[in-house]
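Supplementary Methods S3. Complex input for the iron/sulfur cluster-bound model.
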Amino acid sequence: MALVHEEPSRGTFNGLRHDWTRGEVRALFALPLPDLMFRAAQVHRENFDPTEVQISTLLSIKTGGCPEDCAYCPQSAKFDTGVDAEKLMSVDAVLKEARAAKAGGASRFCMGAAWRSPKDRDLDNVCAMVEGVKSLGLETCVTLGMLEAHQAQRLKGAGLDYYNHNLDTSPEYYGAIITTRTYQDRLDTLEHVREAGINVCCGGIVGMGEGLDDRVGMIATLANLPVHPESVPINMLVQVEGTPLAGAARLDPLDFVRTIAVARITMPASVVRLSAGREDMSEETQALCFLAGANSIFYGPKLLTTPNPERDRDMRLLDKLGLRPME
Ligand code: SF4
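Predicted complex, serialized as structure tokens:
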């Protein structure tokens, strides 16, 4: 009898742990790489077909001019990065991009808007986009900043499948990266999304000058959320000239691989996305990430405003590794 399914106590829920201590997570990071990779691969195989990779396409539906001060972001109006503020795209223009993404093999279409939080009138348009993209047979995801409970409900009503809202880093390092919203604000948005019945896409960024303890703290916080995010994007910072993090010390690619592996082990049933930063990664590093349990990528020439490997190059890499898009 699977007691863990019936008694969600002592930090387990649906058989998944939510009581990871920082010491346990730190111990995973400290494993010899072959042991860490083996454990991550085991967990991956127990929960997924390791040859399948979920493919998402990301479109910036409203670029630039954001009032927030996320130190990594070229879309903040506070930094001079050469990204101009644009208006929200029309529903028709978004649907045209979504059709192209579907033709290119994407199963999920993610739409990002550079807002602190959406105004209710903006949500009318976003809801129309969600309905239109869904009618094409694609899963939908949006990232619009902080949400109130009623806004999450409206998006759910439009049929939204996923809402992306990242924790970015550990609670301790967060203040060095963003000052215009708190960690608790982020947790509140995640709760509204979860309560509305929308799947949660939530991860973070590494290579922002944080220490190992911050990567430990970020993963422990994600893994100890009341329900694990269904999708966990792990991003390698893409340094953009003009942002405060341009020139930050680069993270060793193997530390990135370790972060993916620890995310896989602590959140076994979540899709772990090898997210931003692939443009600067060797094929070998990306391959190690897939071996460490990553099973999703963003696909397409741009990630919001930063470059991403060309689609053909991505497909050739998946082919070379014997991987295929998840249905
Ligand atoms: S990450 Fe999002 S909220 Fe932060 S500055 Fe960029 S667009 Fe704004």
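The CA atoms of residues 2 and 320 lie 40 Å apart. The two ends are 32 Å apart (CA to CA).
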